[in-house]
Automatic annotation (TrEMBL):
GO terms for cellular component: cytosol. Binds 3 Zn(2+) ions per subunit. This is Hydrolase. Its cofactor is Zn(2+). GO terms for molecular function: phosphatase activity; zinc ion binding. Residues 5-79 form the Polymerase/histidinol phosphatase N-terminal domain. Zn(2+) 2 binds at H16, H41, H196. Zn(2+) 3 binds at E74, H102, H132. NCBIfam families: PRK09248.1 (NF006702). It comes from the Bacteria. Zn(2+) 1 binds at H8, H10, E74, D194. Keywords: Hydrolase, Metal-binding, Zinc.
Amino acid sequence: MDIVVDSHTHTIASGHAYSTIIENALASKNKGLKLLCTTDHAPEMPGAPHYWYFNNQRILPRFLHDVGILRGVEANTLNHAGELDLPPSSYPHLDWIIASFHEPIFAPASVKEHTQTLINVIESGKVDALGHLGNPNYPFELKPVLQCAKDNNVAIEVNNTSLTGKSRKGSDVHCSNIVELGNEIGVYFTTGSDAHFCEEIARLDLAISLLERHNVPEERVITSSASRFLNFLLLRGKPRISEFEALY
């Protein structure tokens, strides 16, 4: 399975990452990517930028080093109601919104609370993908969440960093279970390196291996072609991006 979109990456703006958007774009070109989603942490994460940073992404060129740039964010799930840490003014400026649980923002709770929170996040209509769901600190009931994601066309991220054992240890078994059941239900999957340094861009080998192990069809992995990714955004109700017309 070829992957040509990295849908989860960070720049120095996140406060604990080490490369610029220019460096990430160059790494993307060198590694054969067609599209790069830049998804810095939203404001409630310690060290993250003010929300103006996300509103102002409209100034980013649509292509850097011949790689298409998707303006995005990794938003923090704030509470059990599924609210995110972005004001309404930010959403029109963003192409791609990931929502994730992060321990400094949302204290781990019960399986029941995690499950309902994820459903509330999905049903808010604000989120395109759920990030690193394999985190063992946030167990949830798989079937209702994955069915809700399918019904609402929200992608499930397979996060390569979660599979390395260097971050969110213990995620590998949870990720495998999520992919197995998600494939049965028919969800869309996205793949993210979660790069915090440019050399990690497009490092997706473990994610690809997991998807292939469970025989996930390529047409349901939205990062397997630029066209699939962009058309998924249309399915989500996002406006057509004229600069990417040749990629649809």
